[in-house]
Amino acid sequence: MTVEDCEAYKDFLKGPVASFVGPKRSRASGRWRPFTPEGLSADSQAYAVRAIRAAFAWLTTVRYLAGNPWSAVTDPATVTKEVSVQVDRALTADLWVLVRRALDQRCGDQLLNETPEQVRQWRTARAAILLMGDSGLRREEAANAGRQDLRSIRHVASAGFAKKAGEGGAAQVEIWALSVVGKRRRQRTVPVSAATVRALRAHWIDRGENFDAAQDDAPLIAPLVIPATLTARAKHGNKDGDRGEDPTEVQSDGDDRARAKKAYAPDALARLVRQGMKQLAGELLREGVLSHDAHAQLLDTSAHAFRHTFGTRAVARDMPIDVVQRVLGHASLQTTSIYVRAERQRMLDAAAQYYSEDGG
């Protein structure tokens, strides 16, 4: 490969020939193509060039190649953007309280139109939502969290905390901490609220497992029902999955719950949360306790929105910004500071509305 070949490949990435372009398909499909009609963005083109350059650099290092032609090739031009975090998707404090209250109602058999299976699914969704909303986890981190990574710590709080809590002297409190591995394979420890632990315990009871005597490899959150697809049933140990069943059906018998020992895939956990939020939004709107704006926001609420919810709430409740950064696992404090700016903007908006209504 020559430098001219590399430049030609850069041109190809910018405008691939028609035979390489097609609509999104499964990779197992004979109609799959590597490029969509929209093509690659400039950032994606630059990433591809860097990846190939790195591969050739390694081949040169191990002396498989005599030289790296990509070292003489510049990256495609890109625009350096501001750090983009969709903080506006975070739930407001009032909406977060409303969602948690509604989840508790559906998890406590208080709705007569819910079947026992539906209530168990609500308890699974609640455990996932609280884990992300109270600890700031990404959906991959919540899906991969294991019981062996969650532990209880007896912490002797400072005198200032004890005074604020109305206790004399140092106060001993129980804190749950979860060790997770996030982006760039970085391990960090995040606090887990007592409400989240209670939700997890309820979910484990539904699974028929003992939360306090769990196996080391047990996931914190696992599916209670398994879709009848071959892939899902093979993952969860069902060798009789090929039974000619409708793949859209959901199995909910006791044997399936006993087999559900493996964790959710991140996409599956995110789908459970999104579907739960859409159903919750419709029910709360019909009950008249949700505005149309809040209804629209809940319909668009993804699993990642609860991570933003934690970030904005933590800043609003005066958690030190460096602590928020460590809990969220941000590599840069600049990313975390976006939550500070968002909270300041929310405060100014509220003040502007207050003074306009007050006539001042």
UniProtKB/TrEMBL annotation:
CDD domains: DNA_BRE_C. The keyword DNA-binding applies. The lineage of its organism: Bacteria, Pseudomonadati, Pseudomonadota, Betaproteobacteria, Burkholderiales. One of its GO terms (biological process) is DNA integration. InterPro entries: DNA_brk_join_enz, Integrase-like_cat_sf, Integrase_catalytic, Tyrosine_recombinase_XerCD. Belongs to the 'phage' integrase family. It comes from Caballeronia sordidicola (Burkholderia sordidicola). It comes from the Bacteria. PANTHER family: INTEGRASE_RECOMBINASE PROTEIN MJ0367-RELATED (PTHR30349:SF41), PHAGE INTEGRASE-RELATED (PTHR30349). The keyword DNA-binding applies. Residues 235-260 are annotated as: Disordered. This is Tyr recombinase domain-containing protein. Residues 98-352 form the Tyr recombinase domain. Keywords: DNA integration, DNA recombination, DNA-binding. Residues 237-246 have a biased composition (Basic and acidic residues). Gene3D superfamilies: Intergrase catalytic core (1.10.443.10). GO terms for molecular function: DNA binding.
